[in-house]
Amino acid sequence: MTTISTNLQAVGARIATAAQLAGRAVEDIRLLAVSKTFPPERIREAALAGQIAFGENYLQESLDKIAALRDLGLEWHFIGPLQSNKTRPVAEHFAWVHGVERLKIAERLSAARGAGRPPLQVCIQVNVSGEASKSGVSPADTAALARSVAVLPNLRLRGLMTIPEPTENMTMARQPFAALRDLRDALNRDGLELDTLSMGMSHDLEAAILEGATIVRVGTAIFGERQST
Q1: Residue-wise pLDDT tens digits, 199-217
Q2: CB 177 within 8 A of CB 159
Q3: Residue in 189, 185, 178 with CA at minimum distance from that of residue 212
Q4: Are 111 and 124 in contact (CB under 8 A)?
Q5: 3-state helix/strand/coil string of the chain
Q6: Tell me, what's the pLDDT at 227?
Q7: 0.90 cut: is pTM over it?
Q8: pLDDT tens across 95-150, in order?
């Protein structure tokens, strides 16, 4: 059994255990393998072990991988900050975008996606921790952005995403995830239909699942320590 296959099984077991503790169905939680900086052959290895969805945030690197692995029919998620001049290739080659934080970016993605294709699935990135170094819209401004994004053609607003400040304390780790869930629930009470919470990574996926994560973004626990670019 390959290392990546073994790692995927271990991550799957962690997800299942956390889901059981949360009283949730494990089928309601998707694993997104964050493959940025790793070569196509490592992604192919993960795909042959059953992993379908992969997350990237370096555009040119990801386009090269998408082309190299086209035969596998993988699902590609763009998870990093997105600049205006990169919206077209992202809209053309990805199924999901997790990091929308400005209406201008969403509008450009919508225009570039074009009619006749499945809607581009998008999540709004929220800076729940208020860190100056982190991307994302503030919780207070999320509702206005969400309402504007939800009506754009060629996009489907699925939910919210966050990358909170890391901590080893489980109680503290759960707080920002709970805040994102509460924000999602408030938006739904106001008429939106959001089903996705993209939150939790290798070190804190259990805390995220306990607070309702539907997508966990895991890189290191699958592929090992990230390679420099």
Answers
A1: 999 999 999 999 999 999 9
A2: no
A3: 178
A4: no
A5: CCHHHHHHHHHHHHHHHHHHHHCCCHHHCEEEEECCCCCHHHHHHHHHCCCCEEEECCHHHHHHHHHHCHHHCCEEEECCCCCHHHHHHHHHHCCEEEEECCHHHHHHHHHHHCCCCCCEEEEEEECCCCCCCCCCECHHHHHHHHHHHHCCCCEEEEEEECCCCCCCCHHHHHHHHHHHHHHHHHHHHCCCCCCEEECCCCCCHHHHHHCCCCEEEECHHHHCCCCCC
A6: 59
A7: yes
A8: 999 999 999 999 999 999 987 899 999 999 999 987 777 789 999 999 999 999 99
Task: Tell which residue, 128, 135, 30, has the closest CA to residue 80.
Answer: 135
**Residue 88 to residues 82, 110, 167, Cα–Cα distance (Å):** 11, 9, 36
Domain 3-223, what fold?
Answer: TIM Barrel (3.20.20)
**Contact yes or no for 96/121 (Cβ under 8 A):** yes
In angstroms, the CA 57 to CA 131 distance is 20
- Confidence at residue 51, expressed as pLDDT on a 0 to 100 scale: 98
| Cα–Cα nearest to 45, from 78, 94, 11, 1 | 1
Do 120 and 109 touch, CB atoms closer than 8 A? Answer: yes
| Structural domain boundaries in the chain | 3-223
What the block records as the tokens of 17 is 């255990």
> Is residue 217 within 8 Å of residue 198, measured between CB atoms?
yes
Share of the chain above pLDDT 70, in %: 97
